[in-house]
Amino acid sequence: MTTIRVAHLYPDYLNIYADRGNIAVLAQRARWRGLELEVAAIGTGEPTPAGADLFYVGGGQDREQALIAADLAARGPALQAAVEGGAAVLAVCGGYQLLGRFYRDRQGAELPGAGVFPLHTVAGERRMIGDVLLECELEPGERRTLAGFENHAGRTHLDPGARPLGRVVAGFGNDGASGCEGCRVGRALGTYLHGPLLPRNPWLADWLLAQALAHRSGEPPRPLDPLPDELEQVAHAVSAERARRRGGRG
Ligand code: GLN
User: Fold this and answer.
1) Is 147:128 a contact under the CB 8 Å cutoff?
2) Exposed (0-12), middle (13-18) or buried (19+): which is 124, by Cβ within 10 Å?
3) pLDDT given at position 18
4) What is the per-residue DSSP string for 46-103?
5) Half-sphere exposure of 55 (CA within 13 A, CB side)
6) Cross-strand partners of 139
7) Which helix (H) or strand (E) holds 215?
8) Is the full-model pTM beyond 0.90?
9) Adjacent-strand bridge partners of 136
10) What's the pLDDT score for residue 248?
11) What is the pLDDT, as a whole number, of residue 241?
């Protein structure tokens, strides 16, 4: 049985909105394909596992982010090398912000980031809260939608030429103005979308598993065999409809 090695960064600190549910979805969808997910929980002071196929980090309040930021920033070179080496990443909200260069919180404190994503984030007065719908094209010609929930004070600014994860159809996204959401560098994805994200967007879970498998095998990514996702598609449709009806109107 093929094993996919996952490094789950700071599960005890960065896990709001049940973000750890994303790991459960990855594990179950891997199991349905006869694959195994080996998840290592990585806390402060613990080494960054060499050879991980997928890194995952969830969201958190400013207080929790401040507790782990220095430790995460010190992993910057290892994480950047892992991404250059083809490892996959899913970073959500507070974790996404701290994989950029820095996050300046509402008190003005600047939390250092790991420098994986070409962006920085500055907290604003008003929180951006609500349902979100994005249009993405992770594979050329394959337009898909992502539906989720956002709650952040941070306004994320991508560097010129940086690639967003998607275009905002409904919701605030990175900054409530650019029309962009998230960021992509190779197989590394950052997003503000909670929910958790993957139960209502199974295609993204499969895309991440395919990237992680490609890292493991050294071969180009291949789409995984489809699964009967009727329930997931209903969850996606309900979430997407809610976003269309009220996303982005704080
Ligand atoms: N604390 C960060 C912010 O407010 C991230 C919040 C989150 O992870 N939901 O922007």
Assistant:
1) no
2) middle
3) 76
4) SPPPTT-SEEEE----HHHHHHHHHHHHHTHHHHHHHHHTT-EEEEETHHHHTTSSEE
5) 30
6) 142
7) helix 202-217
8) yes
9) 144, 166
10) 59
11) 96
Strand-pair category, 102-104 with 119-139:
parallel
> Alpha-carbon distance 92 to 162, whole Å?
18
Of the candidates 128, 69, 130, the residue with the CA atom closest to the CA atom of residue 100? 69
**Amino acid letter, residue 83:** V
What is residue 247's predicted lDDT score, i.e. its pLDDT? 63
Q: Residue 208 in contact with residue 54, Cβ under 8 Å?
A: yes
Does ligand 1 come within 6 angstroms of the Cβ of 145?
Answer: no
Alpha carbons 189 and 186: distance in angstroms, whole number: 8
Catalytic residue IDs: 93, 194
Spell out, as residue ranges, where the chain has pLDDT lower than 50: none
Tell me the angle at which helices 21-31 and 202-217 cross, rounded to the nearest 10 degrees.
Answer: 70
CB-based burial, 73-106: b 16+ in 10 Å, e otherwise: bebbebbbebbeebbbbbbbbbbbbbbbbbbbbe
Q: Is 156 in the pocket of ligand 1 (CB under 6 A)?
A: no
pLDDT > 70 in the chain, percent: 98
Closest CA to 49 of 41, 61, 60, 57: 41
215 lines ligand 1 (CB under 6 A): no
Gap from CA of 63 to ligand 1 centroid (Å): 10
pLDDT at 16: 87
pLDDT at position 246 is: 77
pLDDT of residue 19: 81
